[in-house]
Amino acid sequence: MHHHHGKFILFGDMNTVRHENKRFGSLFSRLEADHFNSFIDSSGLIDLPIGDRYFTWMNKVGTKHSKLHHFLFSVEILEVLRDIRITSLDRTWSDHTHILLHVLKSDFGPNPFKFYNSWLLRDGFDELIKSAWFTLETNNDGRILRSHEKLRSLKTTIKQ
């Protein structure tokens, strides 16, 4: 298979593992793993990790474990869905782990302004701050709001 363009996801129980450490208590086939890894690489796919579970299958007595489930994404879909997550759920009646594919967008607002002490060592930095502070005009009569507006403008001045 060659690299295909488009948005697609291949997922499910692939019945093989990619690496020896993804199998416990059963035989590992280097040949199968090499074929599977070659398929993923030549197809241009990305195998996203399943969040919080190392193995996705376990036999009934708990002596054999494998990571058989894979979510293989095209690069194009990951460019669109940057916040995609894969979470494993509790194994209940099956020997396979239930898996949830979802989008988890965490928006913590704008990045806070960071002040670096090294800026104080720059020539003319003190004068830049003083002149910017005293020349900034605001239309607000409240001291706190006026200071807030000046600090916001000062941030822009410093970043330049």
Automatic annotation (TrEMBL):
GO molecular function, one term: RNA-directed DNA polymerase activity
InterPro entries membership: Endo/exonu/phosph_ase_sf
UniProt keyword annotations, A-Z: Nucleotidyltransferase, RNA-directed DNA polymerase, Transferase
Official protein name in the record: RNA-directed DNA polymerase, eukaryota
Organism classification: Eukaryota, Viridiplantae, Streptophyta, Embryophyta, Tracheophyta
